[in-house]
Amino acid sequence: MPPDLQKLFEAQARWQRARALLPWHEKIRMAELMRATARSLRGESASPTVESARGATPPTAESGPDALARTARGG
Amino acid sequence: MATLLNAMREAEVIAEYALFGAAAQMRYTEAVATFDADVLVAVPSPQRLDVLRPLYDFCAQRGWQPEGEAIPVGAWPVQFIPVFSPLTREALALADTADFDGVPFRVVRADHLAVIALSVGRAKDFARILALLEAKAVTPESVVGVAARHGLAEAWTQFQRRFLHAS
Fold first, then answer.
1. Interchain contact B1–A (C-beta under 8 A)
2. Which residues lie closer than 8 Å to A14 by C-beta, 6 or more apart?
3. The whole model's pTM is what?
4. Fewer CB atoms near the end CB (10 Å): N or C, chain B?
């Protein structure tokens, strides 16, 4: 492998490993974004479960990337 | 979710809870894709046939209706799983109380997450163990003791041979 390419891969690996050091709630937000993206790729609505939960008592008015954090506070 | 679980415990609907699975893994590793949150629970009356009924009723009173195997709480479908083995009972008892953006949230320790994954043994469970090892959340030495205590020493040896090239 060319040395430049090797360095590029090593730098990428370091960057990816560094993401493990982010605060837990930030990583949960990233997972929510991944989930919303996967659902949109499948043609599903981004967060159907939130809508159904709202039907009984409107617990939260949002379904954005940091909804779990707000949920964690009891929203 | 944490507030709901803490309220359940205070109301003695559950004796204890701890997050596990992928959402718990992310406390220790980089973010991974997951569709739901798995919560281990100990209930006051485990001999009941409908052991989760009081939890479902508690959630329903607050507007969270079950959908299939999970209860959507905010943006997350939550799957409640009663402790089902000495391993999960120990994982629940020894779980950490983490800070989730200012909210106390009980979460299974990394070594128990790894051994629970080992006991389940799907490809994604092995990937979880490797992610925990790479993040240095666990070491082979920290896993082997828990694995041996729960009859999984041979499974751990096989895992090491297969993925860690141990002899």
1. yes
2. none
3. 0.82
4. C
| ipTM of predicted assembly, 2 dp | 0.84
Domain boundaries, chain A: 20-54+64-75
- For residue range A4-40, what is the model confidence (pLDDT) as tens digits? 999 999 999 888 888 889 999 999 999 999 999 988 9
B17 in contact with A, Cβ within 8 Å: no
Assign domain B2-108 to a CATH class. Answer: alpha beta
A vs B, Cβ pairs < 8 A, gives: 112
- Give B-chain residues touching A63 at CB under 8 angstroms: 75
Q: Which are the contacts of A75, defined by CB distance < 8 A and separation ≥ 6?
A: A59, A60, B74
CB-based contact B132:B25 (threshold 8 Å): yes
